[in-house]
Every structure is written in C-alpha cells, then in structure tokens.
Amino acid sequence: MSKPVIVIHGGAGAITRHAMSAEQERRYHLALAGVVESGQAILAAGGSALDAVTEAVRQLEECPLFNAGKGAVFTHQGSHELDASIMDGHTRDAGAVCGVAHIRNPILAARAVLEHSPHVMFTGAGAEAFAASRGLERVEPDFFSTEERHAQLRRAQAADAGAILDHDAPAAGDPLDADRKLGTVGAVACDSAGHLAAATSTGGMTNKQAGRVGDSPIIGAGCYADDATAAVSCTGSGEVFIRAVAAYDVGALMAYGGLPLADAAQRVIFEKITALGGSGGLIAVDTEGNVALPFNSEGMYRGIGYVGGPVETRIYR
Ligand code: ASP
Prior knowledge:
Layout: E1 5-13, H1 22-44, H2 49-62, E2 82-88, E3 94-100, H3 106-116, E4 121-123, H4 124-133, H5 147-158, E5 185-190, E6 196-202, E7 223-225, E8 230-236, H6 238-243, H7 246-257, H8 261-275, E9 280-286, E10 291-292, E11 299-306, E12 311-316
Parallel strand pairs: 3-4
Antiparallel strand pairs: 1-5, 1-11, 2-3, 2-6, 5-6, 7-8, 8-9, 9-10, 11-12
This protein binds aspartic acid.
C-alpha cells in the first residue's frame, strides 16, 4: 500500500540558528509550506508523482529565496548558468538541461526533454533552442539576478574563496548572514498508484567557473527515480555527489544490498559523501511512501506532506 507523499528541499548547508532572524525563518517556512501544499493538492486529485515534482520545483525556481531560477547564484564571470533534471520512476524516462541562461523555468525544459525528445540531456544554446521550440518562456539573464546574490559573488571573489556552495560563502558581517542561505531545490514524490518521480534544479555554486556543471542535472548523481527502489534528489558539494553517483547509489544499496530506504540514504550521506569530504544531503521516497531526509551539514531546508496529513517544514537538525 502506497501513501502518497511529496518531499521537497531548498538546499543543505552550514546554516546555523543564530545566523537567521525569526522573520527570515518564517519566510522560509512559509515558502516551503506553500510548495508542499501545492504538491499535496496535485497528489490528492489523483495527479502523478511526475506532475507533483515538476510543479513543486517550478514554484521553488520562482522563489528568490532559493538558488534556482530567480535568485540563482552568479558564476565567477558574473553570469548565470542554470541546471535542472527530472526522472519518472515508472518509465525511467529522464530529461535534463544544463548551462542555460534564458529559460525562465529550467525544470519545465527538463520535463519537455523527458517527454518530447529521444535525448536525455541538452546543454547551453541547444537546450535553449529546444525549450523555445516547445514554447517555453524565454527571459533575459538578468531576470535571475538579485542584489543579494551579486553581493555574495563580490564577497567570494574578495576572499578568493574559489567556487563555494551557497551556504559556505565567507561571512558577510550581516546579521542575516545572506551567504549562509541555502539554495539548490528538489522534490520527490510517491503518487496514489505507487509511482515515483524526482526533480532537481540549481544555479550551481557561487563563483563557479563558467561552464562548470555540478550534480544537479546529472541523472544518477543529483537526481534519480525508479519505482523498484526510490526517488532521490540531492543537494551539496556537486563534484562529490557526481563522484559518488549519489542518487543512484541509494537505489543500488536497496536493490543489490537489500537495505531499507532509510538505511540506504543514511549510508550514502554519512559514509560515502562524508568519506569523500562532501557536504550536503538528499531527500528520498520509496513506493510505500516511506521517506528519508539525511544531511551531514548543519541544516537543510525541507518539507514533507502526506496526502490528508499535516505539512511539516524544517531547517535545522
Ligand atoms: N549541488 C549543487 C551544485 O553543485 C549545489 C547545491 O546543492 O547547492 O551545483
């Protein structure tokens, strides 16, 4: 018996309680709760897990609090390069785009690739042309910019910090500690038919070199779904999640090792990612509607909603 459920994340990192005001926390909880409610409504109406995760991530992209779509971080060169991916656990069809700067909602482009292309992943100009051919909204790159992210880039460059996770940026001396806000977004869901889906979207890492691609758009690394095991969306040090093939590994531990979802998810984060020096977390769901949300960082913005149940949102451990 499946329990339909949606789980979302808005990034994992070194967020600490004292770095955020009560008002800021409230804004995050409200934003997360609204997205979970939309996902619950889709699932309650008999909608598919694929539709629920698409809409959840689209809404998170529209919210400037998170590092995806509007509010995306800047590259070292001062541009935006957005990545997104989506996978349907029922058919194991997948779609992804990376390095795009003109598609308002990269997750809708990834979904279009899944549905309307024999390919799985498009990059840059080709991704944008494909999205345009599907009638998706095009924007100028400055649509994604916010003053806060620009200040974050300037601080990272002044500190010569290299490419940094949203949350690992050098301290701002700002009581709100803008650099410690997390960002990459994702959703996983189980629908009433027991089908699974996962979606992930990001602006990447602040001060990353132009052309750098992280785990988020890579099927198996930052996103994976298979009805036989689990749907998984990751956030954290992208290079490590790629090397660990993190999202796929959760399902592999279940399929080949017979581990239950929670144990598989814990092992990937606390053994594999940690051993490689990575920081971050993941959200996962299996076809019974069990969920797991492990992270080895201080916090991870996250929300859960079972159909007919309460909405739970959390930030810290
Ligand atoms: N995983 C993302 C990347 O490496 C960053 C993040 O999760 O915040 O692009």
